[in-house]
Amino acid sequence: QIYVVFSEELKCWCRALVESVRHQADGYQLGCFLVDYAKYCSVAAENVRVLVGAFAKIPHRAKKCCLHCTKPLTLHIDYCENTAKIGPAKRWDTAAIQHFRKLLE
Prior knowledge:
Layout (H helix, E strand, L loop, with lengths): L1 E6 L4 E13 L2 E8 L4 E6 L3 E3 L22 E6 L4 E6 L5 H11 L1
Antiparallel strand pairs: 1-2, 1-5, 2-3, 3-4, 6-7
Pfam families: TUDOR
Keywords: ATP-binding, Helicase, Hydrolase, Nucleotide-binding, Repeat
GO molecular function: ATP binding; hydrolase activity; RNA helicase activity
């Protein structure tokens, strides 16, 4: 379900998917994906509203996607043997993400 959340970073109300809920001392924090900005943010529970009416029918500008059969790689450095090999990784490196964004531009 799509909700409307207030983004402190963007200083406006945005449509979002709620992905996680964390309990903190001052209340609940929701991890959200902003469907029109393709950004992740954390929002206080009191800054979340239900999306109603015609606004719920507007298509999203951003969609989550992944590259088919593409897995992250990283450079594994063995200082003892003085070697470096490219191998599988659990997450994409920051440098790989930046390189991919440059390719898209």
